[in-house]
Amino acid sequence: xxxxxxxxxxxxxxxxxxxxxxxxxxxxxxxxxxxxxxxxxxxxxxxxxxxxxxxxxxxxxxxxxxxxxxxxxxxxxxxxxxxxxxxxxxxxxxxxxxxxxxxxxxxxxxxxxxxxxxxxxxxxxxxxxxxxxxxxxxxxxxxxxxxxxxxxxxxxxxxxxxxxxxxxxxxxxxxxxxxxxxxxx
Length: 185
Hints:
- Helix content is 74%, strand content 0%.
- It is an all-alpha fold.
- The chain folds into two domains: 1-93, Rna Polymerase Sigma Factor, Chain: A; 94-185, Orthogonal Bundle (Arc Repressor Mutant, subunit A), CATH 1.10.10.
- Helix 3 (45-62) crosses helix 4 (72-90), helix 4 (72-90) packs across helix 8 (150-157) and helix 7 packs across helix 9.
- The radius of gyration is 18 Å and the shape is elongated.
């Protein structure tokens, strides 16, 4: 099998048969996204790295139980989300979410004031997201920042789609209220 050209499903099947190279390819393909999800949940680089490592160990150990009812990416997002949430439960949930570093675009280089305003606004939004309870923050991150569909998120969080929609509505409402408070106060 040509590992680089294989689908995720084929790689999982090969890894289930003991092909370590196939599992290594899954790790190579999905670690960056899993890290991004963990970092957005945890707001801390070191904790996100730990969560991703724990997630990969859990995925390796749980490989035999993966039946293919969902896409491998959905399964991996569920594993890393659970790992990150376990870390949240082990610590205080008030660590600030730091905005990701941005590279100045050509327009921002010409308009440093505009860049500063956008950076301040982004930092404000990140702080407001961090203030959300994990039950609201996680689906919001997966939907708005990672672009997962409602069905994918419901599967990751193991909740029905209507419950997810309700959580997202509450998260958005709470986020808007917090942003108003932060801007006014």
